[in-house]
Amino acid sequence: MATTLFDKIWDAHIVQAIENGPQVIYIDKHFIHEVTTPQAFAGLDSKGIKVFRPQQTVATADHNVPTQNQLEPIKEALSRKQVETLIENCKNHDIELYGLGHPFQGIVHVIGPELGITQPGITIVCGDSHTSTHGAFGAIAFGIGTSEVEQVLATQCILQTKPKKMRINVDGILGKGVTSKDIILYIISKISTSGGTGYFVEYAGSAIRSLSMEARMTICNMSIEMGARGGIIAPDEITFAYLKDKKFSAENFEERVDKWKQLKTDEDAVFDREYHFDAADIEPMITYGTNPAMGIKISDTIPNNDDAGLEKALQYMDFQKGQTLIGKTIDYVFLGSCTNSRMEDLRLFCSLIQGKQKAENVTVWIVPGSKQVEKQAIAEGLDKILKDAGMALREPGCSACLGMNEDKIPAGKYCVSTSNRNFEGRQGQGARTLLASPLMAAAAALTGKITDVRSLM
């Protein structure tokens, strides 16, 4: 019987199946951070239980960490407490921690792939919705809640109902200035924030296969924004080349590749739902509302319909129906988050700003996703390009993706952001977020307003 890639991996990890019910799934790698673990560890401690397989758990500090002067004490009391608690819990349970000051510290969904911990064919969970990022490697990866974090720590397994399967095909050649961020924002604008609910999505098609691993991670990262349980892309030669020299994937590499090559959907496999998109229809995208589906091509105008949600969103954003966003003055630009903080993102941003100056009215935060990215960016001279343009490379962390650390956008201010969510108050109370690609963010940084990046290329 023909089966999907998702089926092959899921079925290989079933420990026990409950008839007409959920299944117990074995978890190969468990990523943890400081925000969703304190209660989980407290639950273990109250029961006198130790972490079952600590060697399969990897910890880092990312959400609450400052992105300047990281080796100084954290100023915010709650953030400091959560990071200190993570350190204590990892010590008590013999878990590897890539904390502040460690050369591997960074955003959990950045360090897993760059270290080669994330590999094809495995199952990955984390108490973070954007765990879907790791699916770019042909892995089943999804976010879990705090009670489920405790469950995995205690048993290395999780009780789950198997999702339905969706395939989204994007074929053709991408146009000028169009990146993977534009692809996923375009898809979400077509499917809606609930269109993927109950599904695990496989991305396929020639446009997807042409993408780098870092670009594929951006696609899978935002699967959750259409309501999907996760996203997955079949591994191929691009995947194998990326993993070849990584710290945790280099051992017995050729043997692993032979197995990884079998990880693909059979030709006649059937999906519960399928979509087809033409890459030629996609332009640089920008959001105008308060969820990621409220996005338009930069050449389009804000929709004019009677949806109550749209009315509320436009009131919050202070936009009007039928309005073009081109030329709208902005206040902040944020390059970072688990969506767009990798080397490719920094290179794209710097390719546009090199030799130019940022607009005087804009504050720009450039936040690498990890210490490794920061180190490589400096080695390539990107920090100097940024400095010459009136910007600065900060230290790794989730930063202004979410209002959970010192990097918050002030109320009423507009921020063109490469992050993944534009909910009300996501980047700070009253902040107004416009999601876009690194190239679109660079264009806004240079002009001080929303700009079609193609006009600068």
Task: Provide the descriptors you would attach to this structure in a database record.
single chain; 457 residues; alpha/beta; Aconitase, domain 3; five-stranded parallel β-sheet; four-stranded parallel β-sheet; 18 strands; globular
What can you tell me about this protein's structure?
There is one protein chain. With 457 residues, the protein is α/β, with parallel strands linked by helices. Among the domains are: 5-160, Aconitase, domain 3 (2-Layer Sandwich); 308-456, Aconitase, domain 3 (2-Layer Sandwich), CATH 3.30.499. The protein contains 15 helices and 18 strands. Strand 4 (57-60), helix 3 and strand 5 (96-98) form a beta-alpha-beta unit. Helix 2 crosses helix 5, helix 6 packs parallel to helix 8 (213-221) and helix 12 runs parallel beside helix 15.
Topology:
Elements: H1 5-12, E1 14-17, E2 23-26, E3 29-32, H2 38-47, E4 57-60, H3 77-92, E5 96-98, H4 108-114, E6 123-126, E7 140-143, H5 146-155, E8 157-160, E9 164-171, H6 180-191, E10 199-204, H7 206-209, H8 213-221, E11 230-232, H9 237-243, H10 253-260, E12 273-278, E13 285-287, E14 295-297, H11 308-317, E15 332-335, H12 343-353, E16 363-366, H13 371-379, H14 382-388, E17 414-417, E18 432-435, H15 438-447
Parallel strand pairs: 3-4, 3-6, 4-5, 6-7, 9-10, 9-12, 10-11, 15-16, 15-17, 17-18
Antiparallel strand pairs: 1-2, 2-8, 13-14
